[in-house]
Amino acid sequence: MMKKKLHIKKGDTVYVNAGDDRGKKGKVLEVLTDKNRAIVEGINMVKKHTKPNAKHPQGGIIEQEASIHISNLQVVDPSSGSATRIGRRLNDKGKSVRYAKKSGEEIK
C-alpha cells in the first residue's frame, strides 16, 4: 500500500485553526496517516481513567493528548512564526521538498 503524502510531518510546529484549542501552537508528536489525524503536544487534552500498571503504578485519571484532524492544523512558517500553507517543489538536487507559501522558505 502506498503511503499518503500529507502536509504535516512528525516534529513540525503547527498552528491549530479550528476547535477548542484554536489559536494554539504545538509540536507534532505523531502522525496517523491512515486516519488523517495527528497528535500534537499540549493540544486536545483528554482525561483517561487507567488501572494501576507498570507505567502508572498508582493508576487513576491521567491527562493525555488525543488526536486532531490534520485539516485543523497548519504548519508554522519558520521565518515569520505565523501559519502558512505548504507547497512542494524540487530542490537543486531534484528532491521533492516542502516549502512555506508565505515566505517561499524551505521547511526542514
Write the layout of secondary structure elements.
Elements: E1 13-16, E2 25-32, E3 37-40, E4 45-50, E5 60-65, E6 68-69, E7 73-76, E8 83-84, E9 86-90, E10 96-100, E11 106-107
Antiparallel strand pairs: 1-2, 1-7, 2-3, 3-6, 4-5, 7-8, 9-10, 10-11
The CATH topology label of the largest domain is SH3 type barrels
* Helical run tally: 0
Q: What string gives the helices and strands in order?
A: EEEEEEEEEEE
Strands ordered across the widest β-sheet: 6-3-2-1-7-8
- Tell me the number of strands: 11
Q: Name the CATH class of the largest domain.
A: Mainly Beta
Q: If you average the pLDDT, what whole number results?
A: 91
So what's the overall shape? elongated
What is the total domain count? 2
Distance from N terminus to C terminus (CA atoms, Å) equals 26 Å
Low-confidence stretches: none
* Computed structural class: mainly beta
Measured by DSSP, the beta-strand proportion falls in 35-45%
Helix content: under 10%
Biggest β-sheet description? 6 strands, antiparallel
CA-atom Rg in angstroms: 17 Å
Architecture per CATH nomenclature, i.e. the level-2 architecture of the largest domain = Roll
